Amino acid sequence: xxxxxxxxxxxxxxxxxxxxxxxxxxxxxxxxxxxxxxxxxxxxxxxxxxxxxxxxxxxxxxxxxxxxxxxxxxxxxxxxxxxxxxxxxxxxxxxxxxxxxxxxxxxxxxxxxxxxxxxxxxxxxxxxxxxxxxxxxxxxxxxxxxxxxxxxxxxxxxxxxxxxxxxxxxxxxxxxxxxxxxxxxxxxxxxxxxxxxxxxxxxxxxxxxxxxxxxxxxxxxxxxxxxxxxxxxxxxxxxxxxxxxxxxxxxxxxxxxxxxxxxxxxxxxxxxxxxxxxxxxxxxxxxxxxxxxxxxxxxxxxxxxxxxxxxxxxxxxxxxxxxxxxxxxxxxxxxxxxxxxxxxxxxxxxxxxxxxxxxxxxxxxxxxxxxxxxxxxxxxxxxxxxxxxxxxxxxx
Amino acid sequence: xxxxxxxxxxxxxxxxxxxxxxxxxxxxxxxxxxxxxxxxxxxxxxxxxxxxxxxxxxxxxxxxxxxxxxxxxxxxxxxxxxxxxxxxxxxxxxxxxxxxxxxxxxxxxxxxxxxxxxxxxxxxxxxxxxxxxxxxxxxxxxxxxxxxxxxxxxxxxxxxxxxxxxxxxxxxxxxxxxxxxxxxxxxxxxxxxxxxxxxxxxxxxxxxxxxxxxxxxxxxxxxxxxxxxxxxxxxxxxxxxxxxxxxxxxxxxxxxxxxxxxxxxxxxxxxxxxxxxxxxxxxxxxxxxxxxxx
Lengths: 396, 294
Hints:
The complex is a heterodimer.
Chain A: H1 2-19, E1 26-33, H2 44-58, E2 64-71, H3 76-88, E3 94-97, H4 101-114, E4 117-120, E5 137-139, H5 144-157, E6 162-168, H6 171-186, E7 190-197, H7 205-208, H8 210-213, E8 218-222, H9 225-237, H10 240-243, E9 245-248, H11 253-264, E10 268-271, H12 279-292, H13 298-317, H14 322-331, E11 343-344, E12 350-351, E13 354-359, E14 372-378, H15 380-383
Parallel strand pairs in A: 1-2, 1-3, 3-4, 4-5, 6-7, 6-8, 8-9
Antiparallel strand pairs in A: 10-13, 11-12, 13-14
Chain B: E1 2-3, E2 6-7, H1 8-39, H2 46-64, H3 68-89, H4 99-121, E3 137-139, E4 144-146, H5 147-169, H6 171-181, H7 183-188, H8 193-215, H9 225-240, H10 245-265, H11 273-284
Antiparallel strand pairs in B: 1-2, 3-4
């Protein structure tokens, strides 16, 4: 009996020792992103570059660190297929980035099932840390709640009390409209009209021209990507920017680059990162620019920050098992070029300061990528949904 | 004043905007109709040529400082030439085969072109500034009409009218019509039908390029811009009657109008309304509104 017990103890000790090591003697990170579709500029190969930089900068403290990347083509089935292969067959420990809300929600479920780690930077749906939260998922850079709500509060404070929503007709648009409506009405403003436009509309003038007749002084664009670019271009064309302020609820630096300052000037937006904010962010972004040929968006910068924080946690704990690494990541504040004193909450939300910005006029801008005036810092506690309002079962 | 509960001002605004969008449908469907008439090919690459027109304007501005007005001439010509080359080298080989092969070939060509542009310029596209002469606009009382939109409608009506006149009223047009009806017989009269076919394809895609240049200051210039639009344009051609020149033009404007008015009454249906009309037309008049009944 004694022998049996000691054998068991030995086995158990062996098992613990094994789990406190790095699986396959290598940390493997997979960047799952959109490499050819609508999100390929704001995430895409730029996110892969950011992850490569993070691994190179980390050095060889952990031995072998591998990086794989794949294009999910904005299809949830393809995304989960790749993620499943990575987790099951290729021994990937962490999947990172994953723009596109429908893909990321599926991958987050998979990560929970396989007990691996997922850090989301590209996607924005706030439900990742709300009703769909997971102990294996961390949402790093932004979410629809933070960007929309911060912009909403700031615009009301500047006198925007009559809101008109141009909303993209799918979950993303409707959720943002609902979140912002709650905030601006709470701040004393009123919603005077809404136009629901189908996704991928080319001509928004029909919808936009309803705003002045409704007496709006703020036109909020609850849409994304090409829809935002088209609606801004046309708002400018029809002279609406003289009559109302425009608020972009989900705008990336690459969107502004794509539409040009002529169209985008004066636009208010909220971002989780702007390259030209501090010396550290400038230095890092310059290095990124040399490799990628474009300045980083918040999601790309977020990938670097997330991967670095993850690798540090592995170095501290000595294991790449999801549980201890996540615990270590949550216990350590995030301090880097991306953010100061970021904290990962129990619902998986990385809470950090957001920045209210206004797009510069062509005269103010000194050249390409000099696009934002940072007007205010929105403290993380105010920017992200408070835990008290959360529907996440992990924090109930 | 209210019409069906909608302010007259809003309705008239939408009618005008609908006509402007119809102008794009008209130019694009005109090109498709001409190509289908003579080549019997449903040119699925049309959207890609439209996109190339917009990018052409942009690249000419960036690399050669060519202004919008010159681009309006040079870019369609270049794209037309490219179309001629494509017809000579690729399309010519499949005229003996079923329609389906032409569709698949041009569809594939379109995908390759879009893919190349996406690879080179990214998915979100590039900015094209409004030319100075088109900034500002006119106050019509019921709405502010930007000069750029007024120009689109004028330019497109002019191009459509000239094309129609050339095809219906000139000797070249009569050759073209003859070659469409009876190619062998026309050739027997000493008319160079293969050349006519090459030029027709070139002209058809040049029209797409022209629409692309017109679109550059107004819409987001990105590799996918044509793919989004072209499906609607196909529906326009089907409703107008495959191969009917005047049918394509009139249907283009008409459906722009219908779409615009739908946006007022039921925005969510605005993307579908054209296809509903297409289904109804196909049931009642399978050859299209202006097509010859078989």
